[in-house]
Write a structure and sequence with these properties.
Order of helices and strands of chain A: HHHHEEH
CATH superfamily of chain A: Winged helix-like DNA-binding domain superfamily/Winged helix DNA-binding domain
Helix content of chain B: over 70%
Distance between the termini of chain A: 33 Å
CATH architecture of chain A: Orthogonal Bundle
Largest sheet of chain B: none
Strand order of the largest sheet of chain A: 1-2
Strand content of chain A: 5-15%
Structural class of chain A: mainly alpha
Number of helices of chain B: 12
Order of helices and strands of chain B: HHHHHHHHHHHH
Number of domains of chain B: 2
Number of domains of chain A: 1
Helix content of chain A: 55-70%
Number of helices of chain A: 5
Largest interface: A-B, 31 and 37 residues
Structural class of chain B: mainly alpha
Shape of chain A: elongated
CATH topology of chain A: Arc Repressor Mutant, subunit A
Oligomer: heterodimer
Largest sheet of chain A: 2 strands, antiparallel
Shape of chain B: elongated
Chain lengths: 112, 338
């Protein structure tokens, strides 16, 4: 297992939610509330505040995101280069799984 | 009260679920976030439950027992601190078990090899355990003293006073130990003394003294009749003093500026403590199996049930120490750039 993969699997059950946060930040810097709204829009998932801040804390400790200077009380977060690598590797692995699944469904079950 | 002020008060109240370090780092933005969520949906019990649960997880992480932590360095220090608190009790318990094993071994005329071997391993393991714990205490005390001398005493005042008071109480409770050892060395009541050049009798004497010292702590609130009230009160307070001492040192571990070497050795120390507890536990079970007690009660005077409880406690502690070590290591590893 590479270090990048370990960074996400080390988050256990929160790995899927971490991918949502990283994907949101891949589109630009965001503070907590903007992040929740963005995830709701592109994934249809609402991240409760406790879960969101636990994730932000863990991703920050792992160096996958970084906190920027606070604008009044709102602190934006930015995806780091390491975070982008981890996300890219994760998406590539998921795409491989999806393609395999799709191909097998098509071949054996005639799903388009 | 305006709607905004009410929302801020509600958010502040929810923030209290989290530990201090977390609140200092995320508090303001978290309150701001909640105020915006309240505007969307004022009452939502699942949100409250989510915050309460994650806040408690963060509190568990704050003492090194989950990886919900604000910093990787803090995680390692919390792991060392928590392991120390647990290990203080393990060391006392293990010292009591070892002294019992050593007493039984030295009273035998014939020493079967498995019994000698397991007693030897127990001796070395317990010795190493005490050395590591004493090294932690000395490192923390010296670092704290240096910091206090440089005028940075404020954050250390509370735990330093607690450590000094509980440590002094513990030392006072074992004030008879030097006299006892002196008697063993020089002989008393017609018994010949021992020389430290004879390791066998010397270790047996140490075992006897260690048994006397730890028995009053291990026999939790189970005092035999006939002891003076002051002695009973003193003995009953010792486990509490031990807990307070462990907590005080754990707090200092988190607050003092430790030497760089000590910082780097954090996870190694926790690994070592977990390993020593595991080895001690397994060896003690083997010692019981190879007839170490030699027909005597294994856990006199508390009996087999208390002994079983103590063994389960030892196992639980080694698992907890192992968990703190794993969490500290996984966070440190994950935070290393690829």
């Amino acid at each position: 297992m590479t270090n990048s993969e370990d960074s996400l699997t080390g988050l256990g059950r929160n790995a899927a939610a971490a991918v949502l946060v990283l994907s949101s930040l891949a589109g630009g810097d965001k503070h907590g509330y903007a992040l929740v709204k963005d995830v709701e829009e592109f994934a249809g998932v609402h991240l409760p505040p406790g879960t969101l801040y636990q994730l932000l804390s863990r991703l920050e400790v792992r160096g996958l995101i970084t906190a920027l200077e606070a604008d009044k009380r709102r602190r934006p977060y930015r995806l780091t280069a390491q975070g982008a690598t981890v996300l890219a590797e994760y998406i590539t692995a998921q795409q491989r799984i999806l393609k395999t699944g799709q191909a097998r469904l098509k071949r054996s079950w005639s799903f388009a | 009260m305006s709607g905004d002020a009410k929302a801020t008060r509600r958010a502040d109240r929810l923030l209290r679920w989290y530990p201090k370090e977390w609140r200092e780092r995320y508090g303001e933005e978290f309150v701001d976030h909640l105020e915006q969520e309240f505007a969307d949906r004022s009452v939502y019990s699942r949100r409250t439950l989510n915050i309460a649960y994650k806040g408690l997880v963060a509190r568990v992480g704050d003492v090194g027992l989950s990886n919900a932590t604000v910093s990787a360095g803090g995680q390692t220090r919390a792991a060392v601190g928590t392991s120390f608190v647990l290990m203080v009790f393990v060391a006392v318990l293990a010292l009591n078990f070892w002294s019992r094993a050593m007493g039984l071994w030295s009273s035998r005329r014939y020493h079967p090899i498995p019994v000698s071997l397991t007693t030897g391993i127990l001796t070395v393991t317990e010795g190493l355990m005490l050395v590591v714990l004493v090294a932690i205490v000395l490192t923390v005390v010296v670092s704290a003293a240096r910091q206090i001398r440089h005028g940075r005493a404020r954050a250390l005042a509370g735990p330093s006073i607690l450590a000094a008071a509980s440590g002094a109480f513990l030392l006072y409770s074992v004030r008879w130990v030097p006299t006892e050892l002196y008697r063993y060395v020089h002989g008393y009541h017609g018994r010949p003394g021992i020389g430290w050049s004879q390791p066998g009798p010397a270790i047996a004497a140490l075992g006897q003294t260690a048994w006397g010292m730890t028995q009053q702590w291990v026999a939790l609130w189970n005092e035999p009749f006939g002891n003076p009230t002051s002695y009973i009160m003193m003995s009953d307070l010792v486990p509490i003093a031990l807990l307070l001492f462990g907590i005080a040192i754990a707090l200092l571990v988190r607050r003092v500026e430790l030497p760089r070497l000590a910082e780097r050795l954090g996870t190694t120390i926790v690994t070592l403590l977990g390993t020593l507890t595991g080895v001690f536990l397994v060896t003690y079970v083997v010692w019981l199996e190879v007839d170490g007690p030699s027909g005597n009660e294994s856990f006199w005077p508390e009996g087999a049930r208390a002994g079983g409880v103590y063994l389960v406690l030892l196992e639980l502690v080694s698992i907890l120490v192992g968990r703190t070590r794993w969490l500290a290591r996984s966070n440190r590893y994950s935070s290393t750039p690829a």
